Structures are given as C-alpha cells and as structure tokens.
Amino acid sequence: MNVTLPVFFFRTVTLATMASCSEEPANVTATEEGPSEALSSQKREARLRKFRELHFKRNEARKINHQEVVEEDKRLKLPTNWEAKKARLEWELSVDEKKKECASKGEDYDRVKLLEITADDAERWERKKKKKNPDTGFAGYAEAQFRQYQRLTKQIRPDLESYEKQREECGVDFHPTANSLIHGTHVPSKEGIDRMVEDVEKQIEKRAKYSRRRAYNDDADIDYINERNAKFNKKAERFYGKYTAEIKQNLERGTAV
Q1: Distance from C-alpha of 217 to C-alpha of 214, rounded to nearest angstrom
Q2: Degrees (nearest 5) of the Cα angle 158, 161, 166?
Q3: End-to-end CA distance of the chain
Q4: 3-class SS at 184?
Q5: Is the pTM of this model over 0.85?
C-alpha cells in the first residue's frame, strides 16, 4: 500500500534540518571566540595595570625631585660656613652633655677627656702646636728686633772644631767674669766675616723685595708740583681716570669748551 505524504511535511522536515545545520557552526564559533576574548581582556588588564604603575612611579619621582629642589634651595641660601658652624655647635652640645654627665657622676671632665685621647692624636696635636707661628705682628721695635734675633740664631750652625780650638786658646778667660780683661783681644776669622757679610746681603735683598717704593719713570708726564701733589694725582687717576680721560685730552689739546 502506497502512502502519499503531504507537501507541507517535507517542507517542515527541510526547515528543521536547515535549522539544526545552522545551529552547529554558531555553537562552534562561540566556543572558539570565548578563549580569544578572555586572552585579549587579560592583556588589556595587564597593560592598564602597568600603565597605573608607571603613572604612580612618575608621581613619586616628581615628589622626590621637588623635595630635592627645595632642599638644594635651602642649602644655597645658607651661609658659606654653615657646615662648619653646624659641626661646631654639635660638638659644643656634646661637650656640654659630657660635662653634665661627669658632674653627675662626680668625675673630673678634663681627666676623662685625657683618658679618651689616643697617643697618635696627642702626638699630632703637639706637632701642630710646634708648627704654629707665634708671630702676632708688629707690636714694637724691641719685639721686632727680638724676633729677628731668634730667627737669625736658628739659622746658625755651630762649628764645634773652632769652638774647641777657641776654648783651648782662651783658657780660663773663655768664660769671663767681672775681673776678666778680654776686650779687644778677639779677632774674628775671615770665614766668619764672610759669613756675616753674606747674611747681611741676604737681609738687604729681602728688605728690598718688601719695599713698596715705586721706581721713578723719567718718561712720565709731570703733572704735579711736589711729592704730595703727585700722590694725590695718582689716587685721583686710579679712581676717576676712566671718567676724566676725555676732559684731560681736551685740556691738553686746548679744545676744551
């Protein structure tokens, strides 16, 4: 027996088959696109995180630079010897605290301080004291003469052979007393006289270097009437010469108004 199916049945089966076929690629595409979107989102989040970190580091660097600029400006405004003054004040504060501590314990601060000084430091300070120049400047002709005497005697190198020979020749009178008559009996040697002349010539040469007297120039123009007026003209030229040069030239040419 042959059964004839209606036409609409075939159409329904065909549409259902097509729908099922179209749904399978959509599901496959969705499953394929899922991991790619997740990977891209992860990369985007990583880039954003790194961008935020860089932004934070830039802000931190900006703050640190600003602080350094402020500190440098403060240091530049301080006096030149501020570091030395600061170290000195800190040292004084430490000394005061040490003195208070010694006083509270009933100890002598100077003694405790000496106990803390090493032998190397003590030797170094002694050498510095010896090298220190005791010359405080000109205070009088007697002091100046005494300083020169000490300076000259330090340069003397004694001749022990001539010393022993002279002591043998003079005998008891080598160390004279009130009753000794040796005036005019000593005759200096030629070597001693030459040494004295050489030393005197060195002193004259040294004084000539320190002299402030200016050499006289014969070719210079004479624009003074005496020595005092010459000194005044030199001072005026030194302070006002560049301002009055044109006026001076006009006066010398006779073209001054």
Answers
A1: 9
A2: 95
A3: 153
A4: coil
A5: no
How far is residue 132 CA from its own chain's centroid? 22
- Per the listing, tokens 């205070």 go with 139
Q: Would you state the structure tokens that stand for residue 58, as one six-digit string?
A: 């830039």
CA distance 73 to 65: 12
Give the HSE-up count for residue 202: Cα atoms under 13 Å, Cβ half-sphere: 8
Give the DSSP per-residue string, 158-226.
--HHHHHHHHHHHGGGGS--TT---TTT----HHHHHHHHHHHHHHHHHHHHH--PPPP-TTS----SS
**Residue 125 token pair:** 């300070």
C-alpha span between 99 and 113 (Å, rounded): 10
The residues near 170 (Cβ < 8 Å, ≥ 6 apart) are 182
pLDDT tens digit at each of 257 positions of the chain: 444 444 444 454 454 455 454 444 444 444 455 677 888 888 888 888 898 999 999 999 999 999 998 888 888 887 778 888 888 889 899 888 988 888 888 888 888 888 888 888 888 888 887 776 666 666 778 888 888 888 888 877 778 888 888 888 877 777 777 777 766 677 778 888 898 899 889 888 888 777 566 666 777 778 889 989 988 988 988 889 889 888 888 888 887 66
